[in-house]
């Protein structure tokens, strides 16, 4: 896998591949934290090591591990082991919800008896690694990708679904489970994160009581709905300042902050520096 990723990546980049759900990354140094909204995916490090934080929880993974993110989550990722001689090499495979639902419609599995975190790290079974290798090898046979990639991706999903994290994925895919309703709440927050958050309105939208929503949401995401919305807002504001070069006031207002001082205070708490200092240092 390392040789394939090396051939298809340049120096220090994250890139798409000819398989539309497959992405590669290569980093030759450690240190800088990346704040992003992570979509559901399977991630593998084939050389080096990485960490991913949700809320106050830190997950570390390296060669031989796989990480699964089952919901859209604001996260902080960081390369923890890399060098110019042995760069960090990794891959991400986007999990398509419809494919997941189709798969669970054809296998017999009981959901987890309790809420499970939307992020987990486990040891990769040889059968899972074998399927991933075969998917990567398709990049050298582009004519085979349209026919073969969906079949191998389904096999990869099956290996993940029948592993330790499978019951958590099933909870999300099944209607009328608390975790599925948390997934609905996450989707609503992502669409409406610039709006003022009223827990009663969100709870009613997903068919839960406010206290039940708060409990299950935190059990799955390691954050309260308010903390989740705040991180979405701040990640987007930072992106607007770095990529679109919006000024501090405009970025804060664009993501829903009415008070510049509140925006600066909450930004500093998350990123460790006031907005202008952070953006200047990051450019």
TrEMBL record:
Keywords: DNA-binding, Transcription, Transcription regulation
InterPro entries: Homeodomain-like_sf, HTH_AraC, HTH_AraC-typ_CS, Tscrpt_reg_HTH_AraC_N
Coiled coil (UniProt feature): none
Span of domain HTH araC/xylS-type: 183-281
Keyword Transcription: yes
SMART domains linked to this entry: HTH_ARAC
Annotated GO MF terms: DNA-binding transcription factor activity; sequence-specific DNA binding
Gene3D superfamilies assigned to the protein according to its UniProt record, in alphabetical order: Homeodomain-like
Pfam families in UniProt: AraC_N, HTH_18
SUPFAM superfamilies registered for this protein in UniProt: Homeodomain-like
Superkingdom of the organism of origin: Bacteria
Keyword Transcription regulation (UniProt): yes
Protein name from the UniProt record: AraC family transcriptional regulator
């Amino acid at each position: 896998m390392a040789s394939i990723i090396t051939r298809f990546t340049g120096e220090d980049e994250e890139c798409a591949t000819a398989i539309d759900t497959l992405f590669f990354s290569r980093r030759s140094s450690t240190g800088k934290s990346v704040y992003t909204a992570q979509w559901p995916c399977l991630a593998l490090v084939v050389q080096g090591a990485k960490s991913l934080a949700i809320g106050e929880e830190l997950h570390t993974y390296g060669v031989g591990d796989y990480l699964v993110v089952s919901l859209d989550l604001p996260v902080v990722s960081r390369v923890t082991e890399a060098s110019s001689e042995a760069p960090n090499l990794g891959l991400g495979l986007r999990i398509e919800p419809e494919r997941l639902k189709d798969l669970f419609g054809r296998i017999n599995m009981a959901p987890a008896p309790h809420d499970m975190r939307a992020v987990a790290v486990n040891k990769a079974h040889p059968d899972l690694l074998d399927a991933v290798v075969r998917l990567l090898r398709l990049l050298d046979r582009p004519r085979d990708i349209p026919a073969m990639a969906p079949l191998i991706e389904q096999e990869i999903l099956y290996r993940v679904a029948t592993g330790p994290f499978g019951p958590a994925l099933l909870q999300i895919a099944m209607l009328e489970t608390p975790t599925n309703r948390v997934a609905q709440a996450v989707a609503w927050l992502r669409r409406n994160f610039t709006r003022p958050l009223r827990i009663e309105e969100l709870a009613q939208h997903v068919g839960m009581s406010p206290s039940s929503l708060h409990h299950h949401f935190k059990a799955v995401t390691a954050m309260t709905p308010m903390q989740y919305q705040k991180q979405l807002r701040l990640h987007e504001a930072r992106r607007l300042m770095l990529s679109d070069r919006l000024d501090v006031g405009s970025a804060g207002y664009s993501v829903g902050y009415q008070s510049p001082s509140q925006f600066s205070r909450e930004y500093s708490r998350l990123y460790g520096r006031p907005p202008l200092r952070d953006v200047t240092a990051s450019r």
